[in-house]
Amino acid sequence: MRAIRALPAPATGFTLIELLVVIVLLGIVLGMALPSFREATVRNRIVAEHNELQASLMLARSEAIRRNQPVSVCAANATLDDCQNSWGQGWLIWRDVDGDGTVDAAVAATDEPEILQVGQISPADQIAGPTLVTFDRRGQLVTAPGELVLRPQECPAGREYPRALILRGSGQTGTEKRSC
After folding, report:
1. Which of 25, 127, 138, 167 is 20 to 30 Å apart from 52, CA to CA?
2. What are the backbone dihedrals phi and psi of residue 70, each rounded to the nearest 5 degrees, phi first?
3. Are the CB atoms for 94 and 85 separated by under 8 Å?
4. How many CA atoms lie within 13 Å of 129's alpha carbon, on the beta-carbon side?
5. pLDDT, tens digit, 9 for 90 and up, residues 106-153
């Protein structure tokens, strides 16, 4: 009688060539997807900041109506406690009780702080437009109508990254897409 030998098990796994082909294909796919992901990240960041600024303006308007006194939004300084001429640090919402256009420490009668909210912007982005927006007690714009445009510092031509926040005399806002 002859001994029966077991057949060798078939080899499993990948060959080196198969592994290299998969790595090359993954590199090509990632190379194509990465720029799109970067664009989506920038676009989403601008939209999020735009929405936050728009919400802050609507808060200022509603607070002006609710408090029956002027409320302003201005470009904040580095310590986020006063206004400046650049939006680089973000913005402040504050009550301008005495109507002098400056942020005071507290209102003497109520001992309530004037600053209602602070908003910040990414260092990779910028806002262009008037650095002070004031709403009167009826919620109407006291400062001249205009627009605040948010855009990334690096904005390649033809891209629709920038968002404009249109300020209307009635106190309402609108939105427009812009190109770099």
Report:
1. 138
2. -60, 140
3. no
4. 25
5. 554 555 667 888 999 999 999 999 999 999 999 999 888 999 999 998
What is the spatial distance between Cα 155 and Cα 128, in angstroms, rounded to a whole number? 14
> What are the structural domain ranges in the chain?
40-177
What kind of architecture, by CATH, is found in domain 40-177? 3-Layer(bab) Sandwich (3.55)
pTM: 0.77
Please give the torsion angle defined by the CA atoms of residues 109, 115, 116 and 117, in that order, rounded to the nearest 10 degrees.
-170
Token pair of 34 as six digits = 């990465």
**Among residues 136, 134, 166, which one has the least CA distance to residue 150?**
166
